[in-house]
Every structure is written in C-alpha cells, then in structure tokens.
Amino acid sequence: VLVKGVLNKPWIDYLRAISDWQIEHPHILALPGVISNLYDYIQRSTWRTNKGFAEFMFYSPVASCLAQIANCGWFPEGDRRGYHEIRISTDLLMVNPNKGFKWHQDEQNGPLTAGRGVGTRLDALRWWCTMDDAKLDVGTPVYLAKSHENDFMEKDVVFVSDALIRKYEALKFRPEAGDVLVWHPKTIHMVQGPSGGWGDRKRRVLGGTAAVDDCTYEENMEHALGKHGLRQGMPLRSPFFPVIYPRSDDAERQAILSGEVGRSGDGYGRMYRTMGWYLQGRLFGTSVETIQERNKDVRTKTGEKVTGPK
Questions:
Q1: Backbone dihedral region of 5: left (phi > 0), alpha (psi from -120 to 50 degrees) or beta?
Q2: CA-to-CA distance for 293 and 91, rounded, in angstroms?
Q3: CB pairs under 8 A, 24+ apart, for 153-156?
Q4: CA torsion sign, 249 to 253 to 255 to 260?
Q5: Rounded CA gap, 204 and 27, in Å?
Q6: Could you tell me if 190 and 142 are in contact, meaning their C-beta atoms sit under 8 angstroms apart?
Q7: What residues contact residue 126 under an 8 Å CB cut-off, 6+ apart?
C-alpha cells in the first residue's frame, strides 16, 4: 500500500536534516553496508544511536499511519481491542542503493515470526518512509501482488528464483517525499540499483519492521544489538522495542533518550564476523561458505552456541 502525504514539509525537512547529519557523521553500524558498496550509506538501529530518529518515531505521523493500516483484518487481537499497538522492531536508514536486491522476502525483522514459517501468527508490518521524489525506475521496490500468500518460501529463505514468481503481477510505485509504503513481511519484492551511479541525486529512505499488537519474543529470529533480558515467548515489552502507538511509554522513552538502551559486545561481534567473511572473500578469494565453516569451528572450540551465521 502506498499512503500519500503522511509527512508534511516540516516533517520531511526534519527527517532529511537528521539523515544528512547521520551520513556526514557515520556510525560504526554502517560499516558493513558501506564497505560492500551495497549502499552509499546504510545503517540499522538509527533510533538507538541518534535521538533525532527516536523522536521522529515517537512523534511523527508514521506511527498512526501504521496503526491505521493494521486495521486491514490481519491482526484480530487489535481489532477486538479497538486499536492496534505499534512497536519498533527494526529500523534502517538507506541512502542510494548501488547494487539493488533481486526478488526476495525481507529477513531482518527482529525477534518476530513476521508470518514466516508454517503455522506462525502474523505479528509485523514492513514500512518505508521516503524523503525524495522517485524520478527513475530504480531505487524503489517492485512488489509481486498477492505473493505474501505463497507456500514455497521456507522461513529461512530470502531470495526467490525467477521460475517461482512468473504467475504474479508486478506492482510498481513512484513515491514522493513524505509518502509511506507498507507491506506484508512475506511479500516478494525487488529493488534495482542505477547502472550509471547516482551522481548528485539522492534516494533517502527510513524503513523497518513494526511489531503489531500482542507480540512475543522469538529468540531464533533475533538480530538486536543489545542486552534486553527477554527470553523465548515473553511479551515483547522493552525499551529495546519501544511502543510508539497509541502513545509512547514515558519510562521507555526516557531510557532511550538517556542512553540506557545500548548495544552489546556480542552484537558488535556478529557484525565483525560478517565483515570478516566479506573482506576475506574479496581480498583473498576464499569462498564465503569456507569462511563460515571456519568460524563455526572457532565458535565450537570457544564454547559459543553455534546457530549458524546471521
């Protein structure tokens, strides 16, 4: 769904300003994406490292937009209650995709099922908030209509072969600054990068995954860089996943703005290993699979729980 005009000009200017500041002052969390040249700039967890993004999520109309979209019939618990609770699960600042992404389902949705896997309950929506008008047929998602109903995508599979998607109709949107795109987490889509670079043009987007209603913590799906103390099956109630609708929580908001919601060493360790796989493969020609197996052996010897590379 493309929702037009969610942000007015002051909100657009605000989001552009904090995004441009973040680009000029890059955070360490942006290193993997920048080194790989995947984007000119890409960073997750901006709301944890820059209070400007936290305040945007707390106070902008994006929260109420997501709550209204949740009235689509997919979330019966909120329908019965009369309103839908929205929490931040993940966020991502994405500026100028260079390589694009082939047909895929979104995978980094935080500690949620996101409706993926047999018998799981849908507990999330994906969203994009655009800061620039789309002037080209590149840089914006192309969605496959009704592909969220597919039964051939296992929960751990990300990319989809062309042979499996021929029956779906492609939907193209050209969002303008201040528009918001919202989609089912299982919807198959792709983003194409420009063939000749971006030049002086910009495609700035803040997006992520919203946790909807009575979510529980799914430990096997976790990608958070922090020690929040939640365990499998516990209610998703934490300043690490703050509520933004129907209203933010005073204690959660204070914990975030005061810096109490931090990032952990094990999270940075996962980022470091990911960078190691990429750099070794690029510089020395070692396959990613070989590097992952080496890393698995090291973690086994050091007693770290081995769940496979994230």
A1: left
A2: 30
A3: 153/105, 153/116, 153/186, 153/188, 154/117, 155/113, 155/116, 155/117, 155/120
A4: positive
A5: 17
A6: yes
A7: 106, 109, 182, 183, 184, 185, 187, 207, 208, 209, 210
Strands in 101-104's sheet, in edge-to-edge order, are 101-104, 189-191, 141-144, 170-172
For the chain of 310 residues, list the mean pLDDT of each consecutive stretch of 10: 97 97 90 81 90 95 97 93 95 86 77 75 93 81 85 70 77 93 89 76 92 88 65 90 95 87 52 47 39 44 39
In a 10 Å sphere around its CB, with 0-12 CB exposed, 13-18 middle and 19+ buried, how is residue 277 labelled? buried
Model confidence pLDDT, tens digit, residues 161-175? 776 777 888 898 889
Rounded CA separation 205/44 (Å): 12
Tokens of 53: 């993004």
End-to-end CA distance of the chain: 29
Q: Which two tokens stand for residue 172?
A: 């193209």
Q: Position 79: which residue type?
A: D
Q: Residue for token digits 């080194």?
A: 35
Asked whether the beta carbons of 258 and 48 are under 8 A apart, the reply is no
The H or E element spanning position 89 is strand 86-97
